[in-house]
């Protein structure tokens, strides 16, 4: 049975979903995808970009197309010209332990710390020694480990975005990596691009034939004025 849903929000992962990896490891967004996002901004559809990273590699022109930006596993939000940071009171002391360990991060955000995937065992050992395993969430994303407070992730980010934008209708989410698993589960309609990992495809309501941004473009074009047939 086809059910017409009033789609108010499309939540997009950035790396590997909205963008494609090009030469020299750079992530870029196709011009036709940018055009689709610009057209979407002229409708009733709201756009959120949700990433586990710090957002530093996302071009400003792409950030400007989103109504809200959610970075660092749902702990840092850019909305209405302001930046909101959400973290437990104990998190600064946990970060202190990790940042003073022998492990070298790939990136350090306002809240999350990102490591290479090869140090997973050492990371868990350090957390175990300090009795912190129950206070930390480690999410693998391709060749990276995102270390965030327990309970934080893209699912939590989407819940916060729903409140910030006062979304009453349905939410469509598109993501490709391991850290998008719970994002798609939290959304009313979860969509995986063709390049998504198997784990994400298993929970997706729909799998695009096209990869990366071409999937985003296709989905946006199928939501005329905020309507999507599911």
Secondary structure blueprint with pairings:
Blueprint (H helix, E strand, L loop, with lengths): L3 E9 L1 H5 L1 E2 L5 E2 L2 H11 L4 E5 L9 H4 L4 E4 L4 E4 L2 E4 L5 H9 L7 E2 L4 E4 L3 H10 L6 E6 L2 E6 L4 H11 L5 E5 L6 H6 L2 E4 L5 H6 L2 E2 L4 H10 L5 E3 L1
Parallel strand pairs: 1-4, 1-12, 4-5, 12-13, 13-14
Antiparallel strand pairs: 1-15, 2-3, 5-6, 6-7, 8-9, 9-11, 10-11
Polypeptide structure, described:
It is a single chain. The chain is built from nine helices and 15 strands. The protein has 230 residues and is an alpha/beta fold. The chain folds into two domains: 160 residues, 3-Layer(aba) Sandwich (Rossmann fold); 59 residues, Hypothetical Protein Ta0175, Chain: A, domain 2, CATH 3.90.1070. Strands 1, 4, 5, 6, 7, 12, 13, 14 and 15 form a nine-stranded mixed sheet that branches. α3 links the parallel β4 and β5. α2 runs parallel beside α9. It is globular, with a radius of gyration of 17 Å. The N and C termini lie close together (9 Å). The model has no long low-confidence stretch (mean pLDDT 91).
């Amino acid at each position: 049975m086809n059910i017409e849903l009033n789609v108010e929000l499309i939540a997009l992962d950035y790396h590997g979903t909205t963008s494609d990896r090009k030469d020299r490891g750079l992530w870029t967004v196709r011009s036709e995808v940018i055009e689709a996002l610009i057209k979407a901004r002229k409708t009733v559809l709201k756009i959120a970009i949700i990433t586990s990273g710090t957002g530093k590699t996302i071009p400003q022109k792409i950030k400007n197309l989103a109504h809200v930006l959610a970075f660092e596993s749902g702990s840092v939000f850019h909305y209405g010209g302001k930046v909101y940071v959400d973290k437990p009171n104990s998190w600064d002391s946990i970060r202190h332990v990790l940042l003073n360990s022998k492990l070298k991060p790939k990136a350090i955000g306002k809240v999350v710390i990102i490591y290479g995937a090869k140090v997973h065992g050492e990371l868990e050992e350090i957390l175990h020694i300090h009795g912190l395993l129950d206070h930390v969430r480690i999410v693998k994303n391709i060749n990276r480990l995102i270390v965030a407070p327990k309970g934080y992730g893209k699912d939590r980010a989407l819940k916060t975005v729903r409140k910030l934008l006062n979304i009453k209708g349905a939410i469509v989410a598109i993501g490709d990596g391991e850290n998008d698993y719970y994002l798609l589960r939290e959304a009313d309609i979860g969509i995986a691009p063709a390049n998504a990992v198997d784990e994400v495809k298993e929970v997706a309501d729909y799998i695009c034939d096209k990869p990366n941004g071409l999937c985003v473009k296709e989905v946006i074009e199928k939501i005329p004025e905020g309507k999507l047939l599911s």
